[in-house]
Specification:
binds magnesium ion, globular, about 240 residues, single chain, about 35% helix, about 30% strand, binds adenosine-5'-triphosphate, six-stranded mixed beta sheet, Rossmann fold, alpha/beta
Length: about 240
């Protein structure tokens, strides 16, 4: 899909000189460096790259889930890492949705409670949150699994529940780390369509890390992470 300049209405998030170095014992590993990226409202961005290239790390930094070693992430003109932990949590809860590579559903809660969690944290009523959660579980094809615990769901079903949880608060920006990673081809296509629809109809900005080239090709812009840096892919 060609990049549509009209989509560039307002910047949601940007980063400058973003870098991450992990240090374990004597070993220091520079995983990301000098990353410059800006995400506009309604934009869909895909990040591809070999396993270990730093895709998950980049999404975690952009969503404020990890602290960068260099540079900054700016959201609505504010440096994310200058915010207090509480302000960061509120901003993430209101404005971001995150689909983790390994879903991170809470084991002791049912599928519908897991999906409802962002609304419960934002103090919506339990009943309203659960009704909305069931509606989303139905959309992602998990009708009949509302009361299953994560251990009673298949890998792909957990992934779809995690997607439902990430979109329940209608975030301005969805971060999705391998959203189709555990899915069979048919379900992957359904999830792709769901995400692209949310982007096109609801205007939800999205940034994906993916090995799925079908999904990456549906993005407005695609980048490859290589040697710690972000390289635009011109299609
Ligand atoms: N907390 C950590 N401490 C030390 N090294 C880490 C840590 N987290 C990630 N790394 C290293 O950073 C590199 C990038 O990891 P990351 O998970 O971002 O890769 P990825 O591109 O998402 O890979 P995949 O496609 O396999 O999911 C890896 O080599 C990993 O070992
Ligand atoms: Mg990863």
């Amino acid at each position: 899909m060609p990049y549509d300049m009209n989509k560039q209405i307002r910047e949601i998030l940007s980063c400058t000189n973003l870098g991450k170095t992990f240090s374990n014992n004597q070993l220091s590993l520079e995983i990301l460096r000098e990353i410059e990226l800006s995400i506009a409202e309604r934009e869909l961005i895909a990040i591809v790259g070999a396993s270990g290239s730093g895709k998950s790390t980049l999404l975690h930094l952009l969503a404020g889930l990890e602290i960068p070693s260099t540079g900054s992430v700016i959201v609505d003109g504010q440096d994310l890492n200058a915010c207090s932990q509480r302000d960061k949590r509120v901003l993430r809860n209101r404005s971001f949705g995150f689909v983790y590579q390994f879903h991170h559903l809470l084991a002791e809660f049912t599928a519908k409670e897991n999906v409802a969690m962002p609304l419960l944290i934002a103090r919506h009523s339990y009943k309203e949150a659960l009704i909305k959660a069931q509606g989303l579980l139905k959309i992602v094809g998990l009708e009949g699994r509302y009361n299953h615990k994560p251990s009673e769901l298949s890998g792909g079903e957990r992934q779809r529940a995690a997607i439902a949880r990430a979109i329940i608060n209608n975030p301005r920006c969805l971060f999705a780390d391998e959203p189709t990673g555990n899915l069979d081809e048919r379900t992957a296509m359904d999830v792709q369509s769901l995400l692209v629809d949310l982007n096109q109809k609801n205007g939800m900005a999205m940034i994906f890390a993916t090995h799925d080239h079908m999904l990456a090709r549906r993005a407005d812009r695609m980048f490859e992470l290589r040697a710690g840096m972000l390289w635009p892919i011109i299609s």
